[in-house]
Amino acid sequence: MAELTGGPQTTISRVASGDLTLCQFSFVRGLGNDVLTYITSGGLMIGTLQNKPKNNEHATIVVAGPTKITMGTSLGPNVFITGNTSGFAIRAAGSGSYVAGMLITGAVSGAIGELLAGVPWVSGANLAAANV
C-alpha cells in the first residue's frame, strides 16, 4: 500500500498485556494503562495498533488521523467502520456499535485498508444507510 493520505496521526503508547505480535493494524482495547486484543464485535476500541509488541512491551496506537487497518470484510471507500471479534474492520451497521472512523480506501477482506480514525462514538439506527 502507498503512503497514507490525509494529515498527521495522533498516537498514544500503552503497555501490551499479552502477546500482540499478530495484531498489527487491528483495533485494540484498553484496560487501565494496558492495551489488549479486541474481542467484542462492535465494542469500544482505543485505536489501531501500529507495531507488534510482545507482552509488557510498549504498543503504539493511532487514536486519530489516517491509519492502516486490516479488513475483516471487503468494503468500498466512505464507509463507517467498527471492528469484528478479531479487531478487523467491518461496516458499522444499526445502532449500538462503536464507530472508529471512516474507511478512506476500499479493500478486500484480509488486505490492508486505510481508515480515517477518530474518537469512537456509538452509532444510531440509520447508520447502515448513511451515504457520505
Quick synopsis:
By secondary structure, this protein is mainly β. It is built from no helices and nine strands. It is globular and about 35 Å long.
Please give the structural blueprint.
Elements: E1 10-16, E2 27-31, E3 34-37, E4 47-49, E5 58-70, E6 79-83, E7 89-91, E8 98-105, E9 112-122
> Helical percent range?
under 10%
The largest beta-sheet arranges its strands as 1-3-2-4-5
The helix-strand sequence is EEEEEEEEE
Q: What spatial form do the alpha-carbon principal axes imply?
A: globular
Category from helices, strands and their pairing: mainly beta
Query: Could you tell me the strand content as a percent range?
Result: 35-45%
Biggest sheet statistics? 5 strands, mixed, barrel
Average pLDDT taken over every residue? 88
Count of domains? 2
Number of helices: 0
Counting DSSP E segments of at least 2 residues, the number of strands comes to 9
Describe this structure as you would to a colleague:
- This protein has 132 residues and is mostly beta strands.
- It folds into 2 domains: 10-66, no CATH class; 69-124, no CATH class.
- 0% of the residues lie in helices and 45% in strands.
- The chain has a 5-stranded mixed beta barrel with strand order 1-3-2-4-5.
- A hairpin with an 8-residue loop joins strand 4 (47-49) and strand 5.
- It is globular, with a radius of gyration of 14 Å.
- The protein starts with 9 loop residues before the first strand and ends in a 10-residue tail after the last strand.
